[in-house]
Amino acid sequence: MGKRPSWTALAGLVTSSVMTPPLLAAPPESLPAAQLDWRPWGEDRPAGALCRGRYVMPDYRLAPPPAGRVASEADSGQYGADGETLLSGEVVLRRADTQLEAPRVRLPASRERVFAEGPVALRDRNLLVRGAAAEFSLESDDASIDTAHYVAHEQRLRGDAVRLARVAEDRYRLTEASFTTCEPGSDLWRLVGNDILLDRRRGYGTATHARLEVGKVPVFYWPWVRFPLDDRRQTGFLWPTLGFSGDSVDYAQPFYWNIAPNQDATLTPRWISNRGWLLGAEYRYLFPSDAGTLEGAYIADDRQAGEEASAGSELENGDARWYIDARHAGRFDPRTRYRLRYGAASDGAYFDDFGLTFGEQDTDSLARLARLDYRGDVWRLEAKAQGYQKLEDPLDEGDKPFYRLPSLTADARWRQDSGFYQEWGSNLTYFWRDIEGDENGLYDFAGGQRRIPIREAANGARLRLTPATGWRFDDTWGFLEPRLEVAHIAYDLDYGARDTERPEGPSQTVPIASLDGGLVFERDLALGGDAFRQTLEPRLNYAYVSARDQSDFPDFDTKERAFSWNQLWSPYRFTGGDRIGDLNRFSYGTESRLLEDASGRERLSLGVGQAVYFEDRTIDLGGDPDTLPSEQNFPRFYDATRDRSPWVTRLDWRVTDHWRTRWEWLYDDHLSRTERTSLGLQYRADAGHVLNLGYNWELEGFSPAEDEEDVRGYDREDYDLSFALKATPRLDVIGRVLYDNTNDRMLEQLAGVQWNDCCYGLQLVWREWIDDEDTANTIADDTTDRGFFLRFVFKGLGGVGGEADTHFREAIPGYRSTAFGRP
């Protein structure tokens, strides 16, 4: 497996030290805020406002004239012999929504155009342009202003230009001009170009020979650039990203294509200096009844594929590498829906080498699915073909997944007014996987030989039928539910070349009986002057499942459940459909809840319970009812033979509207030890502050694991601290520390800040984390990854760096990152 590099998400910033003439566009200096319709906030400032004021367009000075006419107002007027008119003083002209204000205006005899001497002000539907001189047509939308200063009120953008011309309705061409969304007086960033076209009707602008200035320092140059004027999607280049790792440079330049209102695509050429060119693409579509995405990437010649490959990998330098992931979902009618997905990669190490992101979650598989669902009032039908590609390189034969080709499910439920109900459950699945091994199941891997367990060696069909009947009594003071289910499992198996005496058609029928009941006592309670309802809810549950021989059954999709509060009341010990765990158990417990009397909202829930076993649990993944786990494997032997479960205590307490705590404790009173405990405390303020404190302890062997490499050989204890502090409306500070106390190491460290100002946003985060390489019991092969994340958004123009908000929300529960929208 290739070593995962540290990386940085940055934009490729280019500064030219030799400025050619086309780059020397020099817009005029900006006007003071008061001349740009800027109004500072006063006592009416909205909560959370990032800008110090807003643009306010004043009322027109003249009433709208009749269509095709021009209204005027002036202190004085003179009429020349040739029909020319000179207006002076406070001259105001209005035609439709366009209003011109100037101290001196000249109208030729033709009355086709108007010439104004400055300072002039031209207004047009939430647009203000001030300048030294102006000329505009009385018969069309043409207008031009010299030494112009403009403001678009709704879009909150402004700028300056040597010349501004209105070439059509809502279209403006600017020469040697600037563009920014920063408030007046701020030069944090601006786009400067020789020729800028603003199309307010379509919502975008273009600029040639454009440069980005940050604090009036040029940092980036585009021969041509297209940028949005509002929140509508626009075709054009997105900001590039630049990553570094050792002696390697990783540069990606995305291009966004707004194909239609319901379709778009992003093409991303990517150059990795030590590997070559890679092309990535994503296509998205949305139709009235269905939607989907298609994404993928391809590199024709990976120059370093073999050098970073793991031992045993077949990758070689120069290999072509790729991945594809297609998703589609839709519905035929409100009851019938379908989903399609197909994912594939050239090799299991593709995402290790190319798919790194700042908040990387393990990409250990690519799903493949075709599913059709029907949800009726009585029947629920499902047909699917399902599988996935496991992403490991090299891939152990024993780790290859089973495909379901197909899986057909038909479930139904009938209920009578008397409380009786009947259920029908059925599933027929054909399981298949392509594995290599000799007649004894042996195969070569990693320089040695391994064996495929006999219960995983067959392909074949499984039929599972689970009819059930019961009676449910429900009232405000309690409930009672006896239930009887019959689980029938039958197989048609093919072991291929594997030498075995196992039958090809084993089957078994197992009855599952349970009795569940509880009482609900209520009383009114006053605490701290508030009215509550307190409940006391004792509950009893008995479940019986006989031990039937399942040793000839394969293991296609079954896992053993870890014990929990929910397991006290469930007769099922396994997930999947290959095992039915034997059980003769009586559970008892009680729960008390505190409900706000006015709203019914639950403030506190406290539950305590335990189970008593009348027989040992002999059925495990081996399925043999006569054999218990070896006493040398004490955790599994003890779990199978103990006569009572650990005490389970759980607490969910909303202390106040801001504080909440959760606690679960599993305590073995026979051996006087804690088997598992988890404690969480969360604080969430209305202002957006979040604090999470967590503690987890789990005894060795508590969580069942099928594969030896996944069996944890130590008690696990870790501490988790995360927080998000909204220090000001503009500043967020976030952090997380996840500490593995057992092995005295940090599993994850994260620290960062987010600054959200009027015209820009900034995220700066550092992260270091450990990847256990899918071997929980072996820490020697764990790798440490580090990431430095920088995202800088110029509001109204674009931004540097990719999205990492999803990871922040997962790492810091309750945190919602401020969106870097337009100002």
TrEMBL record:
Its main location: membrane. The keyword Lyase does not apply. It comes from the Bacteria. GO terms for cellular component: cell outer membrane; transporter complex. The keyword NADP does not apply. InterPro entries: LipoPS_assembly_LptD, LptD, LptD_C. Keywords: Cell outer membrane, Membrane, Signal. This is LPS-assembly protein LptD. It comes from Halomonas stenophila. The gene is lptD.
